[in-house]
Amino acid sequence: MGDKKTAGFNIKKIFARSEITVIVAVLILGVIFTIFSDSFLTSYNLFNMGRTAAIYIFIAIAQGLVVIVGGMNLSLGYIGGMVVVAAGYSMEILGLPSAAAVLIGLIVGILAGAVNGLVITGLKLNSFVVTLATSFIFQGLINGVSQGFPYNEIPEGFTFLGREGFLGIPYLLWLAGLALAILGYVFRYTVTGRRVLATGGNVEAAKMSGVNTNKMIILANIGSGFFAAIAGLLWISRTGSAQPSTGVDWMVISFAVAVIGGISLKGGVFNAVGVFFAGFLIVMVKNGLVMLNANIYFEQTYLGLILLLAVSLDSIKEIINGRKLKQQLKSGK
């Protein structure tokens, strides 16, 4: 009898983990789309989904780093757009080599993130207000430099990473997995990582523990800009073109993948495994809807509903847990 109770408890404990929920959702969707579409489970389609999922993972990391410290980055997509324009301009107009363009793109992303972090902490402003304002600034810079025209003269060597793979798995996905593994280690085993999580978990308690919370917020925003830059550069590598419109749809994707992946909007939580599978979940939904001939004009509606559901699940869990706690207290009395 005791063994049954223990087994039941363990199963509940396993499914209470957010990454398990996402993994199960990915498997269920995979089965559904495989049944209704012959082309879903082909190596070509899986390879393409893996490439897109990888970029979504980097976008989610960029948002997640700021969410972890209790903020948000509404300028995320426009940072990616700036990086794309900067790299494309460097290669096509200035004639610089790919390595130099990558370096310039990374610097642009890091500086943009630093600006967000410094303004937030220096002026004690809400991240929503600051990043909303900088999103307009960054968008203006994108339009001003590019004049709305794409940069198509991208060297073939630059597209190798975004179009090829190893062992049938896209290089982009290998990079995304590596990035998540490194971040998972940083947040779990390093002092800086734990301080970042502590800042998002309870900023006042972190201050009392001697954590320089402003420094952690700035660091998180710089990290956000860095990973947004990587996502932008990889997008160029994948498409072979530097489009100024890159990043306009990143906001919903960044929050959807991060939240579904188990990064709490309240801060202080990072889930590498959850983010990895959440990236696939969003790609599968978009890909599956196309294969099922669903109306793609409603795509943003579907993504918005998924995001709303993901956010609601956290609240529902808290309500259920709160009721259970009250019942336990009553029964204890």
Report a brief summary of the structure:
With 333 residues, the protein is mainly α.
For the structure shown, list the relevant keywords.
333 residues; two-stranded antiparallel ribbon; mainly alpha; 1% strand; 77% helix
In DSSP terms (H or I, runs of 4 or more residues), the helix count works out at 14
Mean pLDDT: 86
Residue fraction in strands: under 5%
Order of helices and strands: HHHHHHHEEHHHHHHH
Q: State the helicity in percent bands.
A: over 70%
Give the termini separation. Answer: 27 Å
Widest sheet: strand ordering: 1-2
- Ranges where pLDDT stays below 50 over 5 or more residues in a row are none
Work out the number of β strands: 2
The best one-word shape is globular
Decide which structural class fits the backbone.
Answer: mainly alpha
Radius of gyration: 21 Å
What's the main sheet like?
Answer: 2 strands, antiparallel
